[in-house]
Structures
1.
Amino acid sequence: MRKSYLIKTSVVFITLLITACSSAPVVPLYEYPPDWKETDVRQKTIADYSKYISGKKLFLDPGHGGEDRRNTNKKGDVVEADVNLRVAMNLKKYLEQAGATVFISREIDKTVDLGYRSELSNKSGADLFISIHHNAPGKAEDISTNYTSVYYHAKETDFEHEPCNRDIARYIERDLAYVMGNPGGLGSFDGTYSDYNIYPGQGFSVLRKANIPAVLVEGAFHTSHFEELRLNNEEFNQIQAWGIFRGIGKYFRAGKPEINFLVDSLKVENNFLKFSWMVQDTAGINPKSVVVYFNKEEKEFSFNKLTGIVSAKIDLPAAGDYPVRIIAANKNGNHSFPFNKKITVTDSKTVNISD
Ligand SMILES: [Zn+2]
C-alpha cells in the first residue's frame, strides 16, 4: 500500500516535471532579421543598398587559416579561422549581389602571411579593407565574456588617426551587434575601439600597414559558451554577414566629402604660400569639421560655405618638401577618405604639388 502510494506520487511528480520542462519557453539562439528572412525581401533590401554599394571595391580579409588554426573554443570544435571564412564568403556574396567588386585574402582554409594580407589589399585598388575575426578573452578559463566590437587604427589624438576609419567601424559595429543580439564592448561608448587598446602605440599590423581605409571586425567571442552554440551554424554566419553588409550599405548611403586640390591656386604671393581646395558632398559640409595640416601642424584657413572652397595662407617656408593633409566631414558625420599631398617649395617663386 505504502509502496504503491510512493510509486503513484513519484509518477505524478515526474509527469509534472516533464510538463513543466516541456512548457518552458524555448529561447532561440538567434533571430531572423526581418529584411533577411524571406528571400524576396532580402533581394529587395540588397537592391536598395546597391544604389550606394554598386561600383565600390572592397577587400575582405578572413583572419587566420591554414597553419594558423589555434584559436578555438574550449572543446576545440569552433575554430575561429573557419567562422571568419564563412562570414567573409557570405559577405562577399551579398556585396557582389549589390554590384560591388570584392577582393578577398583567402577563399579556402590556407595560410596567408599577415604582411601579405595588407600588401594584397594595398595593390587591389579597393576602397575599403575589412578584416574579419572573432575574439578571445585574456584568461583561458573565461567562457562568459562576449560582445561584438570593431577596431580602427590609432587614437583620435594621434596625427595618423584617420577619422573615416572610425566612421566605418561605427556603422558595421551597430548593424552587426544588432543582428547578433549582442552588446557592444563596454570599454567604449559605441563598441568601436582603437587598436592601440590592444597594442599601445602600434595597433594591429593589418590596419597599420593598410594604405586604404581599414577596420577589423571582432564578431563575437568564439570562446563564449553561448556563441559556441551558434558560430558553427552556417545560417547564423549568413546573418552575421548580413549585419556587416547592412552596415557597409548604410555607411556609403551617408556619403563622404570629396576633396579636390585646386592646382592653379597654389602660388607664392608677398612671401606667403597660398593654396585652395574644394570640399563637396551632397549632404553638405560641416564647416566645423574642416582641418588642414601643413608640415603636420594645424593651420588657419577660410571656408566659403557656398562654393565649398577652402583657402590657406601660410608664411613661405624654406625650400623643401612639405606634407599637406586635409580632413572634412559631411553633415551626416562621415569624414573624407585620407587626403595627403606633398607641396614642394623650390625657391621664393616656384612651388608645386604631388602625391
Ligand atoms: Zn583573430
2.
Amino acid sequence: MAAENRVTVIGAGLAGSEAAWQIARRGIKVRLFEQKPEKRSPAHKSDGFAELVCSNSLRAADIHSAVGLLKQEMRELDSLVMRAADATRVPAGGALAVDREAFSAYITETLEQHENIEGVRGEVTSLPDGGIAIVAPGPLVEGALAQAIGELAEGFLSFFDAAAPIVTAESIDMDKVYFASRYGKGGGDDYLNCPMDREQYHSFWEALTTAETAELHGFEDDKVFEGCMPVETMARRGVDTLRFGPMKPVGLTMPDGTKPYAVVQLRREDKEGRLYNIVGFQTHLKFGEQRRVLRMIPGLENAEFARYGVMHKNAFVNGPKVLNRYYECKNRPGLYLAGQITGVEGYVESAASGLLAALCAVCDVLGQPRPDFSRDTAMGALAGYVSGYAGADFQPMNITYGLINTVKAKSKSDRKRMVAERALAEVRRIAAGLPGA
Ligand SMILES: Cc1cc2nc3c(=O)[nH]c(=O)nc-3n(C[C@H](O)[C@H](O)[C@H](O)COP(=O)(O)OP(=O)(O)OC[C@H]3O[C@@H](n4cnc5c(N)ncnc54)[C@H](O)[C@@H]3O)c2cc1C
C-alpha cells in the first residue's frame, strides 16, 4: 500500500462527487475539497454537491443510445450519480431527467455522511504537491487553480456554452398550451407545448434575431459548442432553421388535430411541476430582451423567469497531449484530471470520467493493476477519445456510438444491441474484479 493511503479530490461537481464516492466505498479515505459556498462560478447557485447548472436532463435512457449505454455501464460500477438520478427521476419521455435539487441533496447527504470522506469547504488555489489526487474543478474554473492547471497542461483550450431559461408553471397561460410528447413517446404530461402559426413564428423570429445580446469578451459564434448553441445564433442561420431544430412541430399535433407551424417545448424541471425549462432555448440575450422576446411565445405572455439564460466560457485541456487513457496527467503520475475539463462533454460523461479516474486511483493506492476498459465499452471509448484523438482540432465530445468499436450486424438496431451486450459483459467482468466489489 502507498505511504499516503488517502486520495485528494478537488471539486464536488459531477465528476468529483462520483470520484469521491467510488474511492470511499472501496475502503479508501478521501479528502474532498469544494469551494462553495465561499466562492461560486457564475453558473452555480446552490451550496450542494453535483449541481446541474443548466438542463435537468441526463439525456436518453435507452441503452441503444450511446449515452444510455454509458449510464448502464456506470450502474454496473455502482455509480452514485446514477443511484441519485434513478432515485430522483422526473417524467421526461425517453430521457432520464431529474429533480435537480433532490438529485444534488441525495449526493451531498451520501458523501457528507460517509465515514471515509472528509469534506473541506473553501477554494483550492494550487495543485497538490504529491500523493494521489483527482482534480475536477469543472469548465468554469478560474483564478489560481486555473492558472496552475494551465501551467501543468501548457495552456487551456476554451469555447463558449449557454444555459436555457426556466419559467414558473403558475405564470404559464394553460389555455394556450397543451401537453404532448413528440410522437406520443413517454408520459403525456412530460412536456408542455406552445404552438405558433406562421405569422406568430415570423414575428418571433424577427424579434429574436434583432434582440440585443449581453457583452461577452472574446465571444465568437464559431466557438460555440453545437449542442449548446444560443437560440439567437441558431436563428440567425436562416428563417426556418429553428423549425428544423428546437421549434420543430412534427409529432406534436394539437388536441384538436391541428398541426402547428412551429412549437416551443417546455420540459418539467421538478417532480411537482412548478418549474419549466424552455427546451433548446439556451440564450445570451440581455435579461430585459429575454423577457420581451420570450413573452411573445403563446402561453408565456406573463412568464415569470426563475432563471434567465446565461452564457459562459468553458475551459478544457488538450486531452490527447496532456492525458493518458486513465485521465492521468502524462507529466505528473498520480495526478488525474476529471470532468468536463478533460474534454469530455456533458453531465453523464463528466461523471463517467470521474468514475474511471477514481477506480485507477484506488488501484494506485492499493498497488494493484488499473482496470482496462477497452474501446468496446462506452467508458473506455470516451477515455480513448480524450487521450487518443489524432486530429489537430481537439474539441469536447459527448459519447456516441461512433467512438465505440463496432460489430458486423444485419441492421443498425441489431448492431447497437450487440455492441451494448458486449460492452456490458466487459464492464461486469471488470466490476467483479475491482477492490471492494
Ligand atoms: C453554463 C453551462 C451549462 C451546461 N449545460 C449542460 C447541460 O445542459 N447538459 C449537460 O449534460 N452538460 C452541460 N454542461 C457541461 C457539463 O456537463 C457541466 O459543466 C458539468 O457540470 C461538468 O461536470 P464537472 O464535474 O466537470 O464540473 P462541475 O459540475 O462544474 O463541478 C466542479 C466543482 O468544482 C468546484 N470548484 C471549482 N473550482 C474550485 C476550487 N478552486 N476549489 C474548490 N472547488 C472548486 C465547483 O464549485 C464545482 O462544484 C454545461 C456547462 C456549463 C458551463
